[in-house]
């Protein structure tokens, strides 16, 4: 039975479908998934503290959120204004830049959180 339109269940269903669409149909996500998997595997191997996990999860979530927003802007623009326009191109570049900024910030967080325990694990320090 389908959820009642406008209900929280319907909203959650739409949001879930959006995430599935993005992961299934957008190649950008396939760049982030192996990195995410590697970070999670290393973090699990290192037996990180809960606060370290929380920081990593927020960083990963930030990248995925930025990518979802960028993808939604790209899709919306392709329908609303399919012709090339310099200002729209700039807006799309800015949205892609947001993903880049978040990805670089997440990489920095990953290094800060993972390098000290990784170094200790590998070199017994």
TrEMBL record:
Entry GO CC: plasma membrane
Membrane-topology descriptor: Multi-pass membrane protein
Binding site residues for ATP: 74
Database matches in Pfam families: DAGK_prokar
InterPro entries: DAGK, DAGK_sf
Annotated residues for binding of substrate: 67
GO molecular function, one term: metal ion binding
Any single GO BP term: phospholipid biosynthetic process
Protein name from the UniProt record: Diacylglycerol kinase
Originating species: Rhodopirellula europaea 6C
